[in-house]
């Protein structure tokens, strides 16, 4: 029977005992020191064992994933990633057949990529909206370059919902206390349920006008 290398066996052992990923990472790093896998590699193997993907125990060594790094394999990785930016390392390994721990080097050293979280924005603009914004911005920039006082003549505005009142924070309610005094107390408060629309207008020197919209 063929077995995993010692590090992988250790990860499998920890997972079988019910250790969490964090506990497994700590034990592997403690056992192997500087020779330990990276945290990401340990997590990949941990999830692999957790999903029950352990048929390698009884398969010939020749059937284990390849560890080769060459231009052909790198190009395959690049193609698959460009087709689907959300593809996982495990999906790449199943598709190409290269060992999981090789993909860290593919991304960081060969492709210069790293995995990042999606950035949430208030609104996704269409291409027409983006083009319109570019044109307006360019016009404003041209005007500002030709007329130094241009921005002083511009007024812009915004609107937002505000509460009727906001409770003071702990910092705002803090006060100096002598050791012989009792600590001051304050009942916990929540924001007012009453909200009003505030419209505010300002120029380069500050706020020029604001008003609260009537209820309804």
TrEMBL record:
A Pfam family? HTH_48
Superkingdom classification of source: Eukaryota
**GO MF annotation terms:** nucleic acid binding
**Where do the Mos1 transposase HTH domain residues begin and end?**
14-52
This protein's name: Mos1 transposase HTH domain-containing protein
What organism is recorded for this protein? Cryptotermes secundus
Record lineage: Eukaryota, Metazoa, Ecdysozoa, Arthropoda, Hexapoda
């Amino acid at each position: 029977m063929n077995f995993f290398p010692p590090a992988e066996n250790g990860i499998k052992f920890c997972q079988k005992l019910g250790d969490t990923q964090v506990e497994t990472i700590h034990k592997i790093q403690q056992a192997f020191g500087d020779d330990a896998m990276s945290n990401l590699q340990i997590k990949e193997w941990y999830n692999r064992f957790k999903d029950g993907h352990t048929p390698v125990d009884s398969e010939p060594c020749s059937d284990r994933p390849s560890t080769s790094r060459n231009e052909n394999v790198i190009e395959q990785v690049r193609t698959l990633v460009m087709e689907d930016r959300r593809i996982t390392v495990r999906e790449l390994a199943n598709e190409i057949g290269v060992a999981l721990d090789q993909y860290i080097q593919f991304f960081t050293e060969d492709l210069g990529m790293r995995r990042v979280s999606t950035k949430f924005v208030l609104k996704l603009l269409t291409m027409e909206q983006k083009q319109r914004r570019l044109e307006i911005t360019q016009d404003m920039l041209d005007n500002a370059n030709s007329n130094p006082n241009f921005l002083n003549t511009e007024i812009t505005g915004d609107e937002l919902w505000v509460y009727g009142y906001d409770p003071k924070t702990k910092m705002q309610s803090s006060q100096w206390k002598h050791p012989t005094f009792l600590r001051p107390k304050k009942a916990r408060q929540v924001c007012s349920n009453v909200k009003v629309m505030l419209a505010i207008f300002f120029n380069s020197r500050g706020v020029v006008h604001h008003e609260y919209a009537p209820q309804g």
